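Hello forum,

I keep getting stuck at the same step: I have a sequence, I want structure tokens, and every attempt I make locally crashes halfway through. Rather than fight my setup again tonight, could one of you with a working pipeline run this one for me? It's a single chain of 135 residues.
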Amino acid sequence: MAARLTEQTAVFPHVRRERVRFRDCDALGHVNNAVYSTYLEEARLNLLGGLREFILARVEIDFRAELRAGEEIEVGTRVGRLGTKSFELEHEIRAGETGDRVIAEAKSVLVAYDYERGESVELPESLRERLESAR
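Reply #2:
Ran it on my machine without issues. Output:
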């Protein structure tokens, strides 16, 4: 997949690699749909350095191809829309020897959140700058 990494990085500035584990698969031998949320969560953690300042509001996944145990995947992530209190991450999961198979495309919406007060807050300027650099 290294041959494609440069191309993926040009479109998605943050790319996380991992191998599909046997436990990720269902009785039919392909990755269970719920596991894709875990792949996206790992990518979010990798990009954002944690989730203390956010709460996940929405995940949308379009499945394009099947994925099986042992395959290597890359999850590309970039910041899309930036709002006053929320932002959107765009993801693409690819596999194959040259990363030529698009497995899934997804979007995650995260909201800046004050856990002590239990409410959404405006994105702090420091966070906004960090997100802008990940576009």
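The chain has a mean pLDDT of 90. If your local run keeps crashing, start a new thread with the error log.
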